[in-house]
Design a protein that fits this description.
disordered N terminus, 2 domains, glucose-6-phosphate dehydrogenase activity, Dihydrodipicolinate Reductase, domain 2, 15 helices, globular, alpha/beta, six-stranded parallel sheet, 21% strand, nine-stranded mixed sheet, Rossmann fold
Length: 493
């Protein structure tokens, strides 16, 4: 039987109201994460889930939809019938049109929303964020509630500010949870533990010892069924201005005074504000944008981006970005941060690579002077791990050096079940913990940094550089690193 726990101080009663309750995000991520928390005994027994959508269903019909569409996405051990039934007992369904305030009476009058902490999760398009918040206010449902906003929060700095201004008129900043699921990943949490829980790395975590840092978030998937959305967004907005810049800020931040939400976010903000602007000729020199053409993924032919459903003919939307960033402060001055993300690449990988400088002089031959010989690799997906690469003597005569590594594979070292990112973040929302959520000023700083690049692309006649699906992107991304005497990890000999 699954072990259950009693409710503690971090398990308050709640009403989790999920807008977009029949959408892809609810099906693949949110409801499976809530089930995992329920299965592990981490939800209050009297906590309820209120799914909201326009689909003409009653609660019974919605539960049948959950069985058919959500259950296949639940990972882990086989699901016990009794645990599944008790999870379904938490769920009620409310049909309403999110854009029509007069329909919110059905939500207000639902018994589940009248007691406990109300949490409104907006798993919808950003165009609905403000109408939903205003309708909730009109229905008297906002006092003491929390609101969770999914990315993308706007299309640019102006639209992001417009949404934040409107939502901020209804909810206080400490009621607003801007979610970035990468911040909930176990390996990102371990990056904080690695840096601030050990004395070993802190003396080395600076420009004197670090030669460069690489952050990669690569996907094998294309745009799938999101062609129309993605064609209006692109990799810079979808990935760089949130996920990758958040990872960069965690890597480069100064030690916070504590792990309190604002202490952590203050330090991240300082990094984002210290990013050197990329302007004019620097954009052509240090930013690569690409778009995938037809190719093969795992021996299966896939179409080009411009042939995807929903994509405009002749679209110049980027599906790949590689760029060099610099943090202008005493710790990181002169250290390049290389960011890379793309769709239809050769592998599904998210990782951070810290390349330490080679020894200043080697009595052991040229191998010891090779860039990247000493390297820390923090893998976020698919298998979370930390690897420290070094050089050692190869057995036998002479002094031939060979690369070796020390590995920490979390799934092997820790035997207990690992918590998925969405599960951790949803529990933090329920428990009122803001540290892993993006504050408004962080978001504004990220938008300000990417804005000149996006604006430059809009005025240029050049198209994104082509790359075949199933490769690691345009050759220009490799040339970007070659100019700094380094390369992406998969390009090493």
């Amino acid at each position: 039987m699954t072990k259950r726990t009693t409710r503690g101080p971090d398990q308050p009663p709640f009403a989790f109201v999920l807008f977009g309750g029949t959408g892809d995000l609810a099906m693949r991520k949110i409801l499976p994460a809530l089930f995992a928390a329920h299965r592990d005994g981490l939800l209050a027994p009297d906590g309820q889930i209120v799914a909201v959508a326009q689909t003409a269903l009653d609660t019974g019909g919605y539960l049948r939809w959950v069985r058919e569409h959500v259950k296949p996405h639940i990972a882990g051990a086989p699901i016990e019938d009794s645990v599944w039934r008790s999870f379904l007992e938490r769920i009620v369904y409310v049909m309403l049109d999110a854009s029509q305030p007069q329909t919110y009476a059905a939500l207000r009058d639902t018994p589940a929303t009248t007691s406990g902490r109300r949490i409104f999760y907006l798993a919808t398009g950003p165009a609905l964020f403000v109408p939903i918040c205003r309708a909730l206010a009109s229905a008297g449902l906002t006092e003491g509630s929390r609101i969770v906003l999914e990315k993308p929060l706007g299309y640019d700095l102006e639209s992001s500010n417009a949404i934040n201004d409107a939502v901020g008129e209804i909810f206080d900043e400490d009621q607003i949870y801007r979610i970035d699921h990468y911040l909930g990943k176990e390996a990102v949490q371990n990056l904080l533990a690695l840096r601030f829980g050990n004395s070993l790395f802190e003396p080395l975590w600076r420009r004197e010892w670090v030669e460069s840092i690489q952050i990669t978030v690569a996907e094998e998937l294309g745009v799938e069924s999101r062609g129309q959305f993605y064609d209006q967004t692109g990799a810079m907005r979808d990935m760089v201005q949130n996920h990758l810049l958040q990872l960069l800020s965690i890597i480069a931040m100064e030690p916070p005074r504590s792990m309190d939400a604002d202490a952590v976010r203050d330090e991240k903000l300082r990094v984002l504000r210290a990013l050197k602007p990329v302007l004019g000729d620097d954009i052509r020199q240090n930013v690569v944008r690409g778009q995938y053409h037809a190719g093969a993924i795992k021996n299966t032919s896939v179409c080009a981006y411009h042939a995807e459903t929903g994509v405009r003919q002749g679209s110049s939307t980027e599906t790949f970005v590689a760029l060099k960033a610099e943090v202008e402060n005493w710790r990181w001055a002169g250290v390049p941060f290389f960011l890379r993300t793309g769709k239809r690449l050769a592998g599904r990988i998210a990782e951070i690579v810290v390349n330490f400088r080679p020894v200043p002089h080697s009595a052991l031959g040229p191998t010891a002077l090779r860039p990247g010989s000493n390297r820390l690799t923090i893998r976020l997906q698919p298998n979370e791990s930390i690897r420290l690469s070094a050089l050692a003597k190869q057995p036998g005569m002479g002094m031939t050096l060979q690369g070796v590594h020390l590995d920490l594979a979390f799934d092997q070292f820790f035997q207990q079940n690992r918590m998925e990112a969405y599960q951790r973040l949803l529990l933090d929302v329920i428990g009122g913990r803001l540290a892993l959520f993006v504050r408004r000023d962080e978001q504004e700083a990220a938008w300000r940094w990417v804005a000149p690049i996006i604006e430059d692309w809009a005025t240029q006649a050049s198209l994104p550089k082509p790359y075949a699906a199933g490769t690691w992107g345009p050759a220009a991304a490799s040339a970007l690193l070659a100019r700094h005497n380094t390369c992406w990890p998969e390009e090493e000999n």
